[in-house]
Amino acid sequence: MNRLNRLTAILTQLQSKRHLPAEEIANRFEISLRTVYRDIRALEEAGVPITGEAGKGYTLVEGYRLPPVMFDEKEAFSLLLAEKVIEKFTDKEISQHFQSALIKIKSVLKDQQKLAIDHLDEQVIYYKHELTTPSKNEKAIQRIMSALATGKVLQFDYISFIKEENTSRAVEPIGMYYSLGNWYLIGYCKLRKDYRTFRIDRIQKINITEEYFTTNHPSLKSYLKKMEEGNHLIKITIQMDPSHVKYIETHKYNQGFVMQEKVEDKVQLTFMVGSMEFFARWIISIGDIVTIISPKTLSDRMSTLLNNMTEKLKEAKYH
Question: How does DSSP assign 243-303, residue by residue?
């Protein structure tokens, strides 16, 4: 790419975000930071009103370019979802072309929409998996994303997975992710006074309240680490064949299940548990179809339990 084309592309990228770090420009065009500084200076000399802020990056003066197309909130959030899906379901070249096109589209968004999308980018995850039919609850997804962007409390009815009970919940949302055919919401439930995972297709009558929450919740990506370090929970990862998942589908939610994703030809499940002993005694019932990825202490404990069971069987006297 020649310099003129690169300067044009940088200008477009500047219009796609409220703050654009120099490192992000350098990574995209595979150039040095010194070259980035020279390019920004060239744009300034050409009359482009760019300001720099330490720790945040470069910003175009508001209103420098009037966008020819206006997007509403739902359309702007849909762009983010499209970006997450394309990244997982296409090859690298197609994904790169889409990213380039998306930057041009984002350049016409209002500053407030850019800020909302930047914030949501850390709060929405789309895990790679086999292609399945997604859960249907578009209204809930849109309202959750709006609440995530604005920091407002959600009010909804929720049908529990195990007991099929309908309860009313007030939830401070911290993130949303998609895995194996379903969208999930993670948030602080005021009813249970703790963080909970909600399957979005089981959410009913959802509304965004006028209440803002002030709690400094973790981002979705740091949620597992925060739980593990702050609450002394143990992270457990297991794998099994997709055909075997059905044997734990109705029970995994009682065992600290957090997420599920496809890893090559296996299904990988992550749990956060408070008791290694309790989990070991549960999973041992299907030990022949499970591979323990981590931690090793779980494998060691299951080995001890199996040895004890074998000795008990040998000692048994049958009549």
Answer: GGGGGTTTTGGGGTEEEEEEETTEEEEEEEES-HHHHHHHHGGGGGG-EEEE-HHHHHHHH
